[in-house]
Amino acid sequence: MSAAAPLVFITGASSGIGQALAARYAAAGWRLALVARRTEVVEAWARGQGWSGDRWRVYAADVQVIDSIVAAGQRCIAEQGLPDVVIANAGISVGIDTAEREDLDVLRETLATNNIGLAATFHPFLKAMRERRRGTLVGIASVAAIRGLPGHGAYCASKAGVVAYCESLRGECRGSGVQVVTVVPGYIATPLTAGNRYPMPFLMQPEVFADRAFRAIEAGTSYRVIPWQMGVVAKLMRVLPNWLFDRLLAGRGRKQRRTA
Questions:
Q1: Which of 134, 141, 200, 254 is close enough to 162 for a disulfide, judged by CB 3.0 to 4.6 Å?
Q2: What is the spatial distance between Cα 143 and Cα 156, in angstroms, rounded to a whole number?
């Protein structure tokens, strides 16, 4: 693999969306910088793909710890060069009940991973991308950002924060050559959704999602809901009056709490 091949940096690469995105970029001839806490899982998976060793590297990091993910980004630059695309995909989803003290810790952990971890993922690359006047930063949000769902307060708040943060960053990067893309998945069949106790309309396989996300990122689309049907549903939910929205969600299953 030529060092001139483009490089993508992906967090949360040990399973689900992150792993599917890695496979899609590899299929397009990109070099991979893969980040996970469980590096042995990612390394075993990458070796199983039959890729040559110069196509990929794995970096250990916990995105909840700012210095950990920043150091991973710095190692990537030192070992593989400045990425062309950085995808902040790592995230967690756990149900909470604000009446329970331990769930406040879950809320803090969720925000640390899904929001601060996202910003810390971008941090090592942003200045250098601006100097190069080229690069793409991708935030993985969720349709859960559109409206708050009972029992999903931590996840909905964090993903709404991803959308707002990326929109702010996009404005800050305007004219610099750096693109900011927000990808908004609907229900994707991953370990994150496997335990959901409620219907998941338009459930999509991660490989199909990854292909559509790849194309949206390549096109420099600023905001894309995948699949598009969930985008329609999300827009309808957004305009519903509160009384009707609350009635529709009455009795809906809630995300499982960590201690439940």
A1: 141
A2: 9
How far is residue 144's CA from residue 121's CA, in Å, rounded to a whole number?
Answer: 22
Task: Identify whether 227 is preceded by a cis peptide bond (ω within 30 of 0).
Answer: yes
Find the domain containing 115 and state its range: 7-249
CATH number at residue 119: 3.40.50.720
**Is the residue at 18 inside a domain?**
yes
What positions carry a catalytic annotation?
Answer: 155
Q: What is the DSSP string of 186-227?
A: --B-STTTTT--S--TT-B-HHHHHHHHHHHHHTT-SEEEES
Residues 6+ apart with CB under 8 A from 162: 114, 115, 118, 139, 140, 141, 142, 145, 182
Residues 6+ apart with CB under 8 A from 69: 11, 35, 61, 62, 63, 117, 120, 121
- Give residue-wise pLDDT tens across range 28-84: 999 999 999 989 999 999 999 988 888 999 999 999 999 999 999 999 999 999 999
Tally of domains within the chain: 1
Within a domain: residue 238?
A: yes
Going by pLDDT thresholds of 50, 70 and 90, the confidence category of residue 221 is very high
pLDDT tens readout for residues 122-172: 999 999 999 999 999 999 999 989 888 888 899 999 999 999 999 999 999
**What 3-state DSSP class applies to 9?**
strand
Give the span between the Cα atoms of 212 and 207, in whole angstroms: 9
Asked whether 69 and 229 are in contact (CB, 8 A), the reply is no
- Global pTM value: 0.91
Instruction: Work out whether the CA dihedral 31, 217, 164, 243 comes out positive or negative.
Output: negative
Structural domain includes residue 255: no
Q: Which two tokens stand for residue 115?
A: 């929001």
